[in-house]
Amino acid sequence: MTVIYIDSLFILNFIINYLLLLLSARLTGAPFIRWRLSLGAALGAAYAVVTVLPGLTWTGSVLAKVIMTLPIAALSRGIGRGFPRFLALFWLTSCLLAGIVLGLGLMAGGTPYLHIPAEALLLMAAAAYFILFAALRGIARFGGLRSRLLPVEVTFRGRRAVFSALADTGHTLTDPMTGQSVLIADKSCLMPLMPTEARALISASENPVELVEQIRLVDGALLFRLIPYQAIGTRRGWLAAFTPDSVVINGEKKVKMLVAFSTLSAGRAYRALIGA
């Protein structure tokens, strides 16, 4: 007779589900919200508990598992333009991680899932996560993603910053007042362009509205403006943007392009987003 502890089963599945969702989110290359990933992982863990309850084992069928991935992915990512890609990556990483864990378990002399100690299973899942992330990120970076990465050069007040930007078909942000296109860049890339006295304020500020107001007190000639935007998990937000002296993308000089400050997740091959 196999004894299953509900609390251990929930925690184990929560961790593994979170790793899968985090891996899928990072591979999409789009911004993600970690607490939403946690909610999706918790839903998946709760579902795993339901499948072992007396009289409910039918919920663990392959069809039921596939159907259950839909609300898990929707809760983690939100239903929008990037949802199908995120869901497909979630399916792919789930299958790959299961295969790697099974292979590692068999090589260690175990048999699938329940007969592998929870601690060993977590170590295998963590190892599989890093293996998959390194492999799939490498494929994306040097394969399809590489062709979408473009060199960007921004100059402002005699200073110059160079970094890579991702040409994203889902990025259609423009200034509603002027219609100017907007380059969204990680603020760490833009910091060398800013006056010394403004860098600390920009680095510490998490509120674009306050930043636009306070930056005028530091440098009256440094004109920032607010750009409204919508994104997954954000119904209405603002970005602080400025007009650089020049923007050159892949050797082509852009006319009247704004540059907005943002915070992109670490570990990416690019530091900015532009419209494709």
Summarize the structure in words.
Helices cover 47% and strands 20% of the residues. The protein contains 8 helices and 9 strands. A 9-stranded mixed β-sheet has the order 4-5-8-3-9-2-1-6-7. A hairpin with a 2-residue loop joins strand 4 and strand 5. The longest helix is centred in the middle third of the chain and has 25 residues, at 83-107. Mean pLDDT is 77; it is low at 110-114 and 142-147.
TL;DR of this structure?
The protein is α+β, with helices and mostly antiparallel strands and 276 residues long. It has helices spanning 6-28, 34-50, 62-77, 83-107, 118-142, 187-190, 196-204, 208-218; strands spanning 149-156, 159-168, 182-186, 225-231, 234-242, 246-249, 252-254, 258-262, 272-275.
